[in-house]
Amino acid sequence: MPSFLTILRNAPPSEEAGVNPFTNSYPPRAAFSQRVKPGTPASTRLPEQHSLFGPELRPERRFWIVETLTGTCTIILMIFIVLPIFWGAIYQRPQHVPSLNGAIVNFDGGMTGKVVEQVFSMLSGQPGNLTWSVLDATKFSGPEEVANLVIEGEYWAAVVVNEGASSNYMQAVKAVDAMYDPTSAITAFGAQARNERAFGMQVLMAVQLPLIMISVKFAAMNAGMNLAGLPNLATIMKTAPMLVTRPIFFQLKNIRPLDESVGVAMTLVGLIILAIMTFYVVIVNYNARLAYYTRLSYASNVSARVLPLVWTYFFASLCYCLVSLAFQVDFTKYFGHAGFVIYWMSTYLGMLAIGFTMETVAAVLSPPRTVPFMLFFIVVNLSTIFFPIDLTNNVYRYGYAMPFHSMDKTVRTVVFGVGNNIGRDFGVLIAWIVLGFVQICAVTYFVGRSEERKMAYNAKHGEASFEDLQVTA
User: Which residues, in sequence order, are CB contacts of 128 under 8 Å at separation 6+?
Assistant: First the structure.
């Protein structure tokens, strides 16, 4: 028994227009010309075919060349405009490390604390180093309260000299304590989830290298000042050599780790995909109203542009967020069950903010010519979240008012518990929505006036209107 594909391939061509009714393909030109009978209506015939460079296609060929060259020039122009924006966001990054801040809190008051303050103050603001501030220890109840400064986003890192660091070491030397832990002297706090790329490439290095330097410097100073004259130095070297070679060291606590691997997709690639899907909805909505938009009143025209976006993004954003929930992202860790709703509403408002902007541009340029703007819009937003804005040139300070930055911060707050500026982030998104709605209203008005002028011109010069062309077709 022949297969269905075999039947499709062997199906006889249509006698009316030379089209295979199953495959919707045309036979060779010779076969078609033999099959067309005299008197066949022109609407059922294929257009007459010519060579690409034949004189019959001169107007079409001119249009094709102009459009191709325009597209080529546009993509070249976009390369030199769009790519430098992102390249610039990561250019000479080490020079901007001093824009990141750190805190030093000395609960010790002894020699250890003084050395730590001295070294970090000397390195503060130098290339590749954070700008460190020495805070008053009396204003904090303990290291946990200092760690909250990092969690809340006030500082990128904090170094705490623990209480009794110097005295505990001296007691260990007197007792020749082999169980002495040098890492109990200093604790450093950092939050990877605030920005995993900045944490791994800049913050971690700017904290660890000075602390290693302090450990080596303190060991040399201590050996000359406190240990050289001890009668039991040989016993110490044999029983507890760590008291001589590494009297103090540090432990680094990542208090907000990137413990949700899917969170990386939610904060970077997911936002790019979300912007593309948002633009797709704009194109669908644009094409859906082409057949009747000239017959709508002004208010109805605005509604036809806005309402489909509002309800489509509502359900699309929910489905987008449910994907992360299906991959077991814990939204309840810091905000309970409200965490998922906050994330969903942030995504919904973000889609509206981006969609209204795209809708405005599409109304002015038409969807095919909106693609370069979409690429520009994504890169302009992406450049402000790949690395922290503090780690880029001052030009990128515009990022605080961009949708991607607000959505990224909301995700990191809800999922990882870093910072809490949800009110400000939602305010930025709502401002974009209001601005986009005003732009849509304005563009709809001017496009409507333009259509009225075209119709008046066509009526005056006896040319076919849009509706006449549709009826004729």
Answer: 94, 97, 205, 206
Token pair in block for residue 363: 């109304």
User: How far is the C-alpha of 147 from the C-alpha of 138, rounded, in Å?
Assistant: 15
Separation of alpha carbons 110 and 301, rounded Å: 74
H helix and E strand count, the chain? 19, 5
First vs last C-alpha separation in the chain: 43
SS (H, E, C) 66-123: HHHHHHHHHHHHHHHHHHHHHHHHCCCHHHHHHHCEEEEEECCCCHHHHHHHHHHHHH
Residue-wise pLDDT tens digits, 248-291: 999 999 999 998 888 888 988 999 999 999 999 999 999 888 87
Residue 202's nearest CA partner among 101, 104, 105, 122 is 101
Place of tokens 């050599």: 241
Q: Is residue 10 packed enough to be buried (19+ CB in 10 Å), middle (13-18) or exposed (0-12)?
A: exposed
Triad 306, 312, 318: Cα angle to 5°:
135
For 235-362, strand residue ranges (E) read 250-254
CA distance linking residue 432 with residue 148, whole number of Å: 32
* Predicted TM-score (pTM) of this structure: 0.81
The edge-to-edge listing of strands for the beta sheet with 157-161 is 131-135, 101-106, 157-161, 186-190, 250-254
